[in-house]
Amino acid sequence: MDDRRELERLRALLFERELRTLDRLRDQLDALDSFSDRQRRAECVSDIIAEALAIRGRRDEKLNSALEPVVDDIVKNALRTKLPEFTEALFPLMGPSIRKSIAEAFRGMLQSFSKSMEIAFSLRGLRWRLEALRTGKPFSEVVLLHTLVYRVEQVFFIHSATGISLAHVTGEGVASQDADMVSAMLTAIQDFVQDCLASGKEGELESLQHGDHTIMVEKQASAYLACIVRGTPPTRFREQLRACLEDLSVIYFSELAAFKGDIAPFEASRPYLEALLEARYQDDKAISPRGKIILGLLGALLLCLLGYYGAGAYKYHVLKREAREALALLSREPGLLISYNAPTGNGTWEVLIFRDQFAAAPEDVLKDNGLDPASFEFEAVPYVSYQPEMVSRRLKADLKPPSTVELTLGADGILVLSGTAPVNWILEARRRADLMPGILGVDATGIYDPRMRELAEMAREVESTVVEFPSGQDVPAQQYQASLNQAVNKLVEMEQLAAGMDLSVTLTIYGHADATGTEKRNYEVSQARAKTIAAMLYAKGSSLPVLTYGLGSGYAGKTSGADQASRRIEMRVQVFRNGEMLRE
Amino acid sequence: MISKKICMLGSFAVGKTSLVQRFVHSIFSDRYLSTLGVKISKKELDLDGTAMTMVLWDLEGKDRYTEVNVSYLNGAMGFFVVADGTRRETLDIAMELRDKALTLVPGQVPHMLLINKADRRAAWEISQDDIRDIVAMGLPVIETSAMTGNGVEYAFTELGKAMLGQ
């Protein structure tokens, strides 16, 4: 027991400092394990995390592999939740490049447009077209031959030792051969030239000439660039080529050094090669970029004007054709007379036209024939046409003939009226027609009023009535009473009929006496006889105006002496229209 | 995408050119062989899903008076040496060319010996013993016939696979 205590004391004596250190370390470790000390642990790690990541990253790919899915998720999540912020952050970066790309595309378009405009509208262009026709070459090739200063048609990026094509680009519209074989062949040619000519001395084949094509070669130890150029490139192009190869040599340093035939990584070199594809045309020098824009704009303007006037010319052509057609139609139309016509200058045709009152409207004539009247501006001047068609229309419009009337206008200018019509219409028509332009006379023999004939018939009946008187008396003998009554009735009937025809009927009664007795007495008795008859008429309710004349014995006209036939009356019926006597 | 430079070496008139003619695509005429000493052609293969473009450099045949332009071997990733079965001396030349090529192309470049004119085996001067000796040296040998096409496709495929295995 003592021994043990002794030993402890000895240990404390010998290892006191170390034991203290061990205690402190144990405390620290305990503290590290406890949750409350996470903050301190984090601080510890934070001191070295950046360096640790850098070291591990250099050592192998594991850090990348470990972080990749995490970073992937973070980015995806952020994109999903914070798209506006991302857009805002990216905009300053993408905006200018999009703008630049659009500007580039537009510039290229404008350049080629101004070039084509220039060629298309120049005398030279015509000459080249003729040349193309003569030689059978496509026009574009002829233009190229004349205007091209140089054009880089193809660029090859080739591995020097193997001659394997790493990347290859061709200009627009350039036919190219198999890049693998061309690259190998170019390499073979260089080897050949190196062997035959340089015989081991320093020097490289820089260019090969064939016709108007040059193959320019820019070489470095591991790779070289070869360009097929049409025409003569400027000296600065060589510098461009060299700079490009230097860039590529740096970018692909390790890939080129360890090249075993895998060309996939070199795909990304294409934009560098494409930057070398360029072309310059003869007139590019003469025309400044601003000039090109102006030329392009002028060309566009010219094209617009041509289009505008072309369309205008076409429209005018169409209008002219329409006008020709329309004027032909109108000149055939009765009652229309074209006096003046011309295009107005704003897409319509102006027509000064004489138009009879009874002619169709020119607009309607066009519409009826399927033409658009909107193309015409008519100015109508009233006039009277003597064309028979117009005269007929005017007659019809003016006379308004009943359907029972036929109007015939003869070539001699005589209007023939035929059929039946009220006498008033016939008389009025005759009067008006006589005054009408284009009518030289009216023939009304073929037209009648049936009621006038009726009136005449009745008048004849009345007039033929025989009424005789006994000697010395003013009252008719009994046997004449019936016929007298009949005549009176007829007269009343006539009066009514005439009133319906807007006419008036007048009755004149002549009284006669025989030769016996004194002349004075004879006048008295003949007068009394006429008046008796008139009184009888009035007694029947008639209101006919009646004139009575006592003619004595002088107008007996029959026998002389004391015969009964001389003691009589005579009746005459007359029809009047507005005071004018009508005759059948 | 894999591209490989392949050279074809062999004595004059062993049929190298006709050997590949039916199996490759070329845009250049045979004229180049006599002027430049090389003719380029191309063969596209599908090796178990891997697309490979072989750019074939057909080098002008060697005879007593002409040397193969060895510069063309630069960067070769594989090569064929071709002999004519009916002419014994072409095998010797092929082996000579192989040795020369191996000194020029660095590392272990896959290559094979093609013995052409297999369709005229009766007239062969190269014996089976000769072939056994060569195979024993570790050089694969494939008998081909440019006339019938026998073995040609196989040879290209084998070389392709060997290059992929590198």
Give the tally of structural domains of chain B: 1
- The helix fraction of chain B, in percent, is 25-40%
Report the CATH C-level class of chain B: Alpha Beta
CATH architecture descriptor text of the largest domain in chain A: 2-Layer Sandwich
Largest beta-sheet details of chain A? 6 strands, antiparallel
Q: Compute the average pLDDT of chain B.
A: 85
- Total beta-strand segments of chain A: 17
Q: What percentage of residues of chain A falls in helices of 4 or more residues?
A: 40-55%
Count the E strands of chain B: 6
Query: Which CATH architecture of chain B is right?
Result: 3-Layer(aba) Sandwich
Structural class of chain A: alpha+beta
Q: Main beta sheet of chain B, described?
A: 6 strands, mixed
Mean pLDDT of chain A: 83
Tell me what the structure shows.
The complex is a heterodimer of chains A (584) and B (166). Chain A has 584 residues and is α+β, with helices and mostly antiparallel strands. Chain A folds into 6 domains: 1-33; 82-111; 126-284, 2-Layer Sandwich (Beta-Lactamase), CATH 3.30.450; 313-383, GMP Synthetase, Chain A, domain 3 (2-Layer Sandwich), CATH 3.30.300; 388-448, Histidine-containing Protein, Chain: A (2-Layer Sandwich), CATH 3.30.1340; 451-582, OmpA-like domain (60s Ribosomal Protein L30, Chain: A), CATH 3.30.1330. Chain A has 17 helices and 17 strands. In chain A, helix 5 (123-135) crosses helix 6 (139-147) and helix 15 packs antiparallel against helix 16 (481-500). Chain A is elongated and about 220 Å long. Chain B has 166 residues and is an alpha/beta fold. Chain B has a single domain (2-164), classed as P-loop containing nucleotide triphosphate hydrolases (Rossmann fold). In chain B, 30% of the residues lie in helices and 27% in strands. Chain B contains 5 helices and 6 strands. Chain B has helices spanning 16-21, 31-35, 88-104, 128-136, 152-164, and strands at 2-10, 38-47, 50-59, 78-84, 111-116, 141-143. Classes of the chains: A alpha+beta (584), B alpha/beta (166). Chains A and B meet through helix 7 of A and strand 1, strand 2 and strand 3 of B.
